[in-house]
Specification:
It is a single chain. The chain contains 14 helices and five strands. It is α/β, with parallel strands linked by helices. The chain folds into two domains: about 130 residues, no CATH class; about 150 residues, Nucleotidyltransferase, domain 5 (2-Layer Sandwich). Strands 3-2-1-4-5 form a five-stranded mixed beta sheet, sandwiched between helices. A hairpin with a 4-residue loop joins strand 2 and strand 3. The longest helix has 22 residues.
């Protein structure tokens, strides 16, 4: 029975491991008051997503859990919830990207990856409430989340958010280029929404992966198709293997069922921050469930001081 109460320690150890891999300083500035460290703030915000807490529920849980406070180094007092909100507002986006990319030092090398997009709802009102009050409810505000994931272990490798409605290929190209700098998979799966010659070219030349992308208009013969790489993959397409792409739909379902399909923040900056911390929390949960362990050979006082 000790596994469940000690799970937050595993989450804290994974957060600290990512913190060290990303080489983040304990304090954002030399002029900081140094009451709390960046690690403590980041862990609390990731732990908030992990437990699906509000800010008040998070701090109530922290206040009632003496062992957790001691493990994190909150010996005197705990931060106010406005402290966490201000920290989330001023934290640069590139730090969260570094934390997500830090998983490459923990997970095994991914061989098969898949790319897809899903929507995160930004409105907490129910359809019934919107209908009764006259608010449009058929087209609700949402944040598009583009993912490239390891479909063998269901771990998200890179991600990108966009609030405006755009075609999937616009976000897919820079996301593939980011993937090529950190991972070298063998196969890339994607649906027909990513049928674009530039995506095929980036996959072959930069990522080094064979693109199993289902092309549009299957009745059009090869000699009438456009694009060198699209023609190259059209005649040797393995449809049976392509069905492995469905695993990323499973990942999207796991992600939303575990951590919710809505965000409660109102500002665009905090909405994106909340989604990124949710992705990090999801990856940590997957690593714990599949049994990947890490070893921290440092004193806890070094972690928070």
């Amino acid at each position: 029975m000790k596994v469940i109460p000690d799970k937050y320690k595993k989450v804290a150890d994974f957060c600290y491991k990512l913190f060290r891999i990303a080489q983040l300083p304990l304090h954002s500035s030399k002029f900081s008051n140094k009451i709390y460290s960046q690690f403590q703030h980041l862990f609390l915000l990731i732990y908030k997503q992990y437990k699906k807490y509000t800010y008040e529920e998070l701090l109530t849980d922290l206040a009632n859990n003496k062992e957790l406070r001691h493990y994190l180094g909150f010996s005197r007092k705990i931060p106010h919830y406005t402290t966490l909100i201000k920290f989330a507002k001023r934290l640069p986006r590139k730090i969260l990207d570094k934390l997500l990319l830090a998983f490459k030092e923990i997970i095994p090398k991914p061989k098969e990856v898949a790319m897809d997009a899903t929507g995160i709802t930004l409105d907490n009102a129910s359809s019934h409430y919107c209908k009764r009050t006259g608010i449009p409810y058929k087209k609700r505000p949402f944040m598009k989340l583009m993912l490239i994931a390891d479909i063998e272990r269901y771990i998200i490798l890179v991600a990108k958010q966009r609030k405006k409605t755009r075609h999937d290929t616009i976000d897919a190209k820079p996301l593939l280029k980011k993937l090529s700098k950190h991972y070298k998979p063998d196969v890339l799966y994607a649906d027909r929404g990513f049928d674009d010659e530039k995506i095929f070219k980036i996959s072959f030349e930069e990522v080094g992966a064979y693109p199993l992308i289902f092309q549009k208009n299957q009745d059009v013969p090869k000699h009438r198709r456009k694009g060198y790489y699209r023609k190259k993959t059209f005649t040797v397409f393995d449809y049976g293997r392509y069905l492995q792409r469905n695993k990323i739909e499973t990942l999207n379902s796991m992600f939303k069922r575990k951590f919710g399909s809505r965000v409660k923040s109102r500002l665009d900056l905090l909405q994106k921050f909340e989604i990124m911390t949710r992705i990090i929390a999801y990856n940590i949960d997957r690593l714990i469930n599949i049994g990947i362990k890490i070893f921290i050979f440092v004193f806890r006082s070094e972690r928070v001081s």
